[in-house]
Amino acid sequence: MPKVTAQTSSPSKLQRIFWLALSLMFAVIYSSLALQQAFSADYVVQDDARQHVFWMQRFLDSQLFPNDRIADYFQSVVPVGYRTLYQLMAAVGIEPLVLSKVLPFVLSLITTGYCFGVTLQILPVPVAGFISSLLLNQTLWMRDDLVSATPRAFVYPLLLVFWYYLLRRSLLPSLGAIALQGLFYPQSVFISSGLLIIQLGKWERGWFRFSKERREYYFSAAGLAVALLVMLPYALTTSEFEPIVTATQARGMREFWAGGRASFFNDNFWEFWLNGDRSGILPRRQSLPILLYGAFLLPLLLQFSIRFPLSRQVKGGVMLLPQIILVSLSLFFAANALLFKLHLPSRYTEHTLRLVLPLATGMALTILLDGIFHWGEHAKRIPKLSSNFNRDVQPFPSRYDTFPPLIRGVRGVKMYFIELQTPVLPVGLAALVGIILIFYPSFVKEFPKTAYEVGQVPELYEFFASQPKDSLIASLSREADNLPTFSHRSILVSWEYAIPYHLGYYKPFRQRAIALIRAQYSPELGEIRAFIENYGIDFWLLERSAFTSEYVANSKWIQQFQPIATEAEVRLNQGTTLALPGLMEECSVFEAKGLVVLEAKCIVAGELGVGSKISGVHYKSRWVKDLASFPA
Known about the structure:
With 632 residues, the chain is of the alpha+beta class. The chain has 27 helices and 11 strands. It has a 5-stranded mixed β-sheet. Strands 1-4 form a two-stranded antiparallel sheet.
């Protein structure tokens, strides 16, 4: 270990290559586990990628999702760099869904490399870079951010890239990193801008003083200018889906409370401010490796350089870590003051803490282990104790002589370690830390956490994919979440796409959802027909169990829409005869695994009194040819 943590400001090139390669090896292992899940079946998609990737099929076929407000909305909110990357890959034949599965592998390697580099800019000991990068990889794969391949997946490599070049004071790469942040994850530009400002000052003897280095002002001014340029289009562009929901409006919406689609508010003070997934300062404890608590040792170890000599090698760049936390907290409270205008407050702290904690822990563990090994080396130099030790020193008072075998055993163990003169404690502690570092993911319930959704009804996706491209599907089933991605067909509404931050998008969306619930649980066939004609529905996807009160009561999706959800539940409890169940047999054009597809034209024809016959032909026979092409 002393060789591994050799106190030198210039570690050998061979050392750096070895520990960097080892770091990248673990990144490859973790990423490969995720890739196995991603390609484990024909219909697999990451949970959040369903929102951000489905509409990109338009790059391959411009006729898909015509007049689709859901597709238009999600296309409008993605950053331009993110959209351009997928568009360029689609131009060379790489499907967006495939790219979303491969991209996390690439991002994890970039993240690992720059984490290693940032660590060595602060503590030039390669093993510290390895520990930091390994912990960071474990941290990221215990959460489904990186694997999502959505804009937030880019925040980790892009922040680390900027921090690395900021520490090196490399101007052009730093400016490039800021520009990329604006193109892929604009919120991170605020963090980088805050760091550029705070770098202009430092604490000296208890006072905050501005830098006297003119170069520092030029560096920060250039960075802030790029940040302004890259963020200006976002500030000047107006969206057809505005306005953004206000805090007052959000507090009056079920969607923003527990169980809602965008749960944010919580009556529990600590849960809201500390642990809330969208509102809290801290990342979820369950998504952090246990060794990350070692980060809090770093400030203490730096104060005891005599006991821990490796801490003397820590450079002034270590101050970047508390500066990041200070900037992040400032933006967190600013985002709360301007709620939802700067998006979610937690986005300004959880991502940076997931980076800072592994960096600090890697350095702290390296310094701690080095100090313990130095203690062990010092112990070897203690003069050998007298051979009369066993006679001259009594380990226990004579009154314990009642247990002579035990006393002799303890004395023998003690003499063994003294004679051996081997640093057992340092070796044992290093081995324990190494075991925890390497094998910790084996004890995590779900590692890597990918949140991949596997389609359970391939026949259904194939059926809808064979229908006209302008088809519109109405459904309250959660299976509707998968149809835009797997079938490339438009849906009226679904839980996955019920994002309530932009009222220009969500108000009409909510109206459509309420109209669908009202029609599905209506006793009047005329009301169903009016719904179909008003929204241009082509197919209606139902679950066989949809017409039970338990189905409505247990659906978070339906219960968000009150009072219509309660009205539907009351009708079912009262045994009211509903119109739609009576048409499930004669208008069914597809059925599999408890899911039934009705054709809207048949429902309308039934309301007009022509039943299931059109021109003397049974309605279902129109689909015999299509259904025959599907596997049994």
